[in-house]
Amino acid sequence: MLRTAAGVAVLGCTLAACSPDYDWRTVTNNADGYTIDLPAKPMSDERDVDIGGRPMKMKMQSAHAEGAVFAVGTVILPDDDPQLRQSVLDYLRTGLARNLGAAPDARATQVPLAAGGDVPGVEMSVSGDAGEKREHKTIEVRLVARGRHVYQATIIADKALPQEQVDQFFQSFKLY
């Protein structure tokens, strides 16, 4: 599943070369319970994944700008089990780092709720070589779980992006 998600994101990086500007727009995803600003018109994808021997659905919305992929992946859990939520968070965190050959160094963060307040999450920045061509990538990600959803807000780029663009993306990410 993680390789599939990373593959979609890496493919998106290749396609991103056609998108020269940031054209921020707020995307509200009522079905999955979040809102976020994306730098271009979003594309959607959905697939079944297997995490720890359990089938789950993963949905993705992504947009491409300035050689980067901005994406929100949502894993739909079969039930509201705190242990399962944590297992999926751990799986995503370690898998992203493993794909780049980096240590899964995560820091605590707070992810805001649209109605006010926030929920605990983790954020990490990793760099390394990815894909069949072993191209250098930088990944910045926030992982958070709420109810029957585990969210992965991710930026994948060939190089560091302007901080204001990174901030626009992550600061706009709010859960319902």
TrEMBL record:
<protein>
    <recommendedName>
        <fullName>Transmembrane protein</fullName>
    </recommendedName>
</protein>
<feature type="region of interest" description="Disordered">
    <location>
        <begin position="111"/>
        <end position="133"/>
    </location>
</feature>
